């Protein structure tokens, strides 16, 4: 299936050939985004640019900076494996390069977060994959 | 005004239940719902030549043929509609369109949400529980790689993200969202089938209920229940001989922009804007002329952004609209979700979305009982699927 589960039951990404470079970069502490020569950065990685359907996009290092477009504090955790981690903050981050990305906001007081707050990427290596989080800048 | 090819003539609606003590398969529920809706419309089964359904658990593939075989119906138009909470509204316009082009003449719309009998040594509920991944854990699924690991699962966090953005952008008060839950719950008191009948709710109750995903609190979140519903839709000519007042489907629109809320083009500019624009234009109807609104309400915020994006007020004014209007059926202001909505009546899977249509039909037919509106000629109905991903607008008129 498309989700792996860590030893504690936590859902982890299961990369596929198209998305593997993104997760390999995350394991090195880099945020790598697909970039189309005509339409610029897009996210998530997919076989063709979601604007022009061109296949000639390339991977490009991104700044790892962005702003909280919106966030919520999940106070229950909507999976049994997530319940012990609650409360935690889930955000849509607007990357400096433009695309939106879903991520946890870590290393923060969730109660003090605000929409439009600047954030920077944080990388967590888990088993043989990696997670991209953000933290207040 | 608008389209005049097809009309709703019959409804069947089971009272939502928190627990389901009459185990039956989806196919069995469909058979019972079909018998009830045909009886309600005064039609014969042999007149049905179109079948529209949501998922049939006993037949994950080939659902329409499983249904046609089980019901003994040989039909000319067969659809599974997979638009989440917008499925029922999506089925209504597909039926109307199929009838208009002559593909068929009488369509059965079926939305069962029941608990099957347990297999020997097994657990029926285990197979029925809506997985929090919502299908996003299939191999290769983008959500499985980029949303689920972040904890964006089930639906509540996604709608909370919309609410938080709305509050930051337009200064919405939490009390305004709570007012929606209170007024819908009031309406539920006049619906004998509502799960929360006999349990009115105060603003204080909502405001002090447990925070689940900020800013959404427990009583702003729909309760999943069991139940089921059906509609019978037929041509204008055949509708005229039903004992029920035909409810014309005079306008419709559907729009889809994303799957995960993270990739919505704009959290505050929802697909209903395009869908409602198309529906009202097709019907030739004015927003100010509607007698009731039936707005998909998985959460309070869903109602507010849908009112706004469907064009009942200007951008950013949804909060003020809710403050200035009374959604209660007997307030003479802006009756909305007069059955209590799903927040007040319960969300029986896809039948929860169907209930918004059923309620509008009952009101237009003068069959809404103690919550009957004094005037009900024109209704705005909508369905919302997934994470505000796909939305359908319908304009219904009494014939």
CATH architecture name of chain B: 3-Layer(aba) Sandwich
Uncertain segments of chain A: none
How many E strands of chain A?
A: 10
Largest sheet of chain A: 5 strands, antiparallel
What class do helices, strands and sheet pairing of chain A give?
mainly beta
Pick out the low-confidence regions of chain B. none
Total number of beta strands of chain B: 11
Helix fraction of chain B, binned, reads 25-40%
| Radius of gyration of chain A, taken over Cα atoms and rounded to an integer in Å | 15 Å
What topology, given as strand order, has the largest sheet of chain B? 3-2-4-7-1-8-11-10-9
Shape label of chain A? globular
CATH superfamily of chain B: Thiolase/Chalcone synthase
CATH class of chain B: Alpha Beta
Name the quaternary structure: heterodimer
Helix content class of chain A: under 10%
Query: What name is given to the CATH topology of chain B?
Result: Peroxisomal Thiolase, Chain A, domain 1
Order of helices and strands of chain B: EHEHEHEHHHHHEEEHEHEHHHHEE
Strand content of chain A: 35-45%
- What's the helix count of chain A? 1
Strand percentage of chain B: 15-25%
Gyration radius of chain B, rounded: 20 Å
Descriptive overview:
With 137 residues, chain A is mainly beta. Chain A has one domain (13-136). Chain A is 6% helix and 42% strand. Chain A has one helix at residues 20-27; strands at residues 3-5, 11-13, 32-36, 40-41, 58-61, 65-74, 88-95, 100-105, 118-126, 129-136. Chain B is of the alpha/beta class. Chain B has one domain (6-119, 221-398): Peroxisomal Thiolase, Chain A, domain 1, CATH 3.40.47.10. Chain B has helices at residues 26-41, 63-71, 87-100, 124-128, 142-146, 156-170, 174-188, 203-208, 236-239, 272-283, 300-312, 318-324, 341-345, 350-364, and strands at residues 6-17, 50-53, 77-80, 106-113, 211-213, 216-217, 226-235, 247-256, 292-294, 378-385, 390-398. In chain B, strands 3-2-4-7-1-8-11-10-9 form a nine-stranded mixed beta sheet, sandwiched between helices.
